[in-house]
Amino acid sequence: MVLFFLIFFLFLSLPNSLLSSFSFNSSTPPCHSHESSALLHFRNSFAVGYSNYYCDVYSNPPKNSWKMVTDCCGWDGVTCDTMAGHVIAVDLSCSGLHGLIHPNSTLFSLRHLQRLNLAYNNFHGSTISSKFGGFANMTHLNLTYSTIAGFSIVGYPVAGSSFAGNFPSEISHLSKLVSLDLSGNIDMRIETPNLKRLIQNLTHLTELVLYGIDMSSVSTNCLTNLSSSLTTLRLNGCQLKGKFPDNIFHLPNLQVLRVAYNYNLTGSLPTYNWSTPLKSLFLSETKFPINIPYLISNLKSLKELTVGGCNFIGSSYPTFLSNLTQLTSLDLSYHNFGGQFPWSLLNNTGLTHLDLSYNNFIGQLPEVTRNLTQIFSSNNSSNSQLLNKIPSNLEYLVLSGNLLNGTIPSWVYTIPSLRYLSLDHNKFTGHIGEFQHTSLVYLNVSFNNFSGNVESKIFSKLKSLQSLDMSNNPNLSLHSFTSATNILSKIHSLQLSSSNITEIPQFLRTAEYIEYLDLSNNHIKGNIPSWVMEVGKDSLYYFSVSRNNLTGHIPSLICNLRSLRFLDFSYNHLNNMIPPCFGKLSDNLIDLNLQSNNLNGTFPTTFAKGCHLRSLKLNGNQLEGALPRSLVHCRKLEVLDFGNNKINGTFPCWLETLLELRVLILRSNNFHGAIGNPKTKFPFPNLRIIDLSHNEFHGLLPTNFFMYLKAMMNANADKGELKYMGDSYYQDSVIVVMKGYFIELVKIHSLFTTIDFSNNNFKGEIPEVIGELQSLKGLNFSHNNLVARMPQSLGNLTNLEWLDLSSNKLTGEIPIQLADLTMLAFLNLSENHLSGHIPQGKQFNTFTNDSYHGNLGLCGFPMTKVCGNDEGQQPSPSSTIQEDDFEFENGFHWKVVLLGYGCGFMFGLGLGYLVFSSGKPKWLVNIVYGGRHNKLQRS
Ligand SMILES: *[C@@H]1O[C@H](CO)[C@@H](O)[C@H](O)[C@H]1NC(C)=O
Ligand SMILES: *[C@@H]1O[C@H](CO)[C@@H](O)[C@H](O)[C@H]1NC(C)=O
Ligand SMILES: *[C@@H]1O[C@H](CO)[C@@H](O)[C@H](O)[C@H]1NC(C)=O
Ligand SMILES: *[C@@H]1O[C@H](CO)[C@@H](O)[C@H](O)[C@H]1NC(C)=O
Ligand SMILES: *[C@@H]1O[C@H](CO)[C@@H](O)[C@H](O)[C@H]1NC(C)=O
Ligand SMILES: *[C@@H]1O[C@H](CO)[C@@H](O)[C@H](O)[C@H]1NC(C)=O
């Protein structure tokens, strides 16, 4: 489904072609030496690595004449002014530049620049310097990047963005600007004043392309004054909300208007005076009411229309289909259209692209679809087999997530022009045949039930294949395939997760473009072969061999992988030290997961300023030494998990300044000392999960931290939307101890909040302020030396599902308020000095003796000791634990993986459904697979 957008993006980007082919004109005077050295200096300030997919498909980058020619006006991508010889245009798009653009960059000394194209390089989240505003004569500025919503064209997630931070107001000094493209920089933000200034000052603007940039705080009013010369406005996926100004539809020259995927953008399409040249209108997933017949009859030039998930008014589907005489591209996805699709109505249309995904269509694809070259029909209820014949000019066929069964019909193997084929998430069976498509770029057959032996010759004709996903076909035997060589030499993305493979595919030895490699959940044995590190040197950015049987050490060659962003070697048997050169990688890494191996020694890396790390997981190794202090440089850090190691030191309160930190797990290490007081005013503002258990912390519970854990306080803040941590390109997982089990939350729900300080030497009282942390789902202070009464404020923790205060020295009665905790499913107060009545009724009827034993003074149900004036109120029999015990309220689901109870059991990763029952206490657990609904965004 990622594919829709991807393909669309590909398809629609094509005509835009490459902006600038500034060819060298041999009659120009030689270039000025200061400009020549500025250019060289600029270029040499970057490492050169892999550019990205876009460049492979559309550009021929070798720009190496810079070394051979002395006159900079003769360099590829450089254009000089014919009169004065000044450099006036620089096109370094797709040059594979990696590094930061500093405000002191020599680029900014090229004052005469009129065109600058730095598209598709990797500037590592540089901010756009205000110095860009200094190019007085700039007409074309292009800093686009290839990601949109984190997805690349070939259907797998891509890393990060090129520029980040705030859009500088100085861009509005570029009053001669005609074309501005900053699209795809999804970590960039524009605010109202700067956009307003931009629009007011740039009166010559014809192209404004900002899709993917965060405009969530922008007031749409400021778009009112857009220049009347505007031909292209692309603001897809900008989080715009509110009313879209009417006058934009009347701009006399507007040809391309794309504002789709701004979910809360509303407005009304005009009923008169449309800007008639409009060719491309993207409104999917907005709140505009749309009257298609009206649009079609009034916009005579309209060729492309996307209205997926929109509200239709006026005469409805399917009657308008027969009127689509001029449209070539139509997106009707995300509606509730059902029944047979009326293919015959398309007979006289010129439609080439049709997206019917996410409807309830049934039936078969037609034998004759006329001009259609692109059919997207994923996630319909189609339960039939594919037809015998489909038009031979088909380029894109996307049928994911239907209920298609049987074998793949033979015609599929021979469609000559096919480029994209998605048959994933269906019920296909049988052998996979030999693909004949020499132009196939993308092939996805994952999540089916194919069987038999996959011979390498199946792929021998696929000379153009860039992306292959065969994951999760448990009955396929891939041995001949993985041992083959000389196939798939163009591969960029290979996904063979859960495929029973036993080796890293040999053909990857020559796969020099490999970027994304997911071999998780297999049976790969032995050492990590060093050739992988050679092959992926410039391009590999996602590498997962998690959950295999790898042994040996992590080779230091790994540090060759200069583009690496996501590295996952978790759940293997790797040993020895983490190579010291890891520091070299840490500048780029976003997600490093080495948990559950046998790594020892200290964690070697020093993280530099500007570190991009979001998630660092080293749980379950034998690491020693201290936590690296340099982690404070990782301002984006969300998850830090050093649990189950031998780390020592005191509480790392220096982490309190990390604004994004959500998960801090230091469980089972050698930490000691008191926690102390925060050093800053708002410590740990986003912390949701903290586990300090099984250490030697002592002193009082840290009241002054509890007071500020804002993210744990606002229970209702973001209940509306189900959010998981990690964004579109990675999903975070973490192990928590929940109700006595080690449970891996494969997706960390952003509402999930727990505190576990158990098995330390904390003393003193449980502070009253704990009652403020109202989103807490789990609280564990067991096995400490806590005294005095349980605070009544515990009764305010209305979301609490498990509470363990056992093995302390608590006294007094159990606060009656606890009976109001209707979510509470697990209670352990055993081994304290509690006395008096056990609260009765509601949840308390479900707890057994085990919850209270070792408190000699307690009386009432379920204890045998009767209270002095007990009325003998007989509670209802304790209810059996529900099967959906781990399915929390408000409908969110988890994929949970049980890793065992205590140290007894060990379970592997199981998708789907697993029932677990292990003695005491008896829990039946329903493991729910959480399908995240990832909408695609087209730009
Ligand atoms: C920016 O440059 C890229 C790569 O050269 C190109 O594909 C894109 O169309 C350009 N943007 C504009 C608005 O011309
Ligand atoms: C620019 O500044 C950066 C960081 O402040 C520094 O590392 C770099 O050497 C400077 N470059 C130039 C050309 O002065
Ligand atoms: C900008 O353009 C104007 C008019 O073409 C010219 O006079 C001026 O020298 C240019 N400025 C720079 C810095 O190139
Ligand atoms: C508008 O452009 C002019 C000319 O470059 C510049 O002097 C002025 O500061 C700009 N105004 C704003 C609000 O940026
Ligand atoms: C859209 O608006 C609704 C209601 O104001 C809000 O709850 C929701 O979070 C918004 N959605 C997005 C994607 O901004
Ligand atoms: C759609 O086509 C039908 C005939 O096929 C015609 O009668 C009708 O007026 C058309 N509707 C519009 C809105 O053009």
From TrEMBL:
<keyword id="KW-0472">Membrane</keyword>
<keyword id="KW-0433">Leucine-rich repeat</keyword>
<keyword id="KW-1003">Cell membrane</keyword>
<dbReference type="InterPro" id="IPR046956">
    <property type="entry name" value="RLP23-like"/>
</dbReference>
<feature type="domain" description="Leucine-rich repeat-containing N-terminal plant-type">
    <location>
        <begin position="33"/>
        <end position="81"/>
    </location>
</feature>
<dbReference type="InterPro" id="IPR032675">
    <property type="entry name" value="LRR_dom_sf"/>
</dbReference>
<keyword id="KW-0812">Transmembrane</keyword>
<dbReference type="Pfam" id="PF00560">
    <property type="entry name" value="LRR_1"/>
</dbReference>
<dbReference type="Pfam" id="PF13855">
    <property type="entry name" value="LRR_8"/>
</dbReference>
<keyword id="KW-0325">Glycoprotein</keyword>
<feature type="signal peptide">
    <location>
        <begin position="1"/>
        <end position="20"/>
    </location>
</feature>
<dbReference type="InterPro" id="IPR003591">
    <property type="entry name" value="Leu-rich_rpt_typical-subtyp"/>
</dbReference>
<keyword id="KW-0677">Repeat</keyword>
<dbReference type="Pfam" id="PF08263">
    <property type="entry name" value="LRRNT_2"/>
</dbReference>
<keyword id="KW-0675">Receptor</keyword>
<keyword id="KW-0732">Signal</keyword>
<dbReference type="GO" id="GO:0005886">
    <property type="term" value="C:plasma membrane"/>
</dbReference>
<protein>
    <recommendedName>
        <fullName>Leucine-rich repeat-containing N-terminal plant-type domain-containing protein</fullName>
    </recommendedName>
</protein>
<dbReference type="InterPro" id="IPR013210">
    <property type="entry name" value="LRR_N_plant-typ"/>
</dbReference>
<comment type="similarity">
    <text>Belongs to the RLP family.</text>
</comment>
<keyword id="KW-1133">Transmembrane helix</keyword>
<dbReference type="InterPro" id="IPR001611">
    <property type="entry name" value="Leu-rich_rpt"/>
</dbReference>
<feature type="transmembrane region" description="Helical">
    <location>
        <begin position="892"/>
        <end position="916"/>
    </location>
</feature>
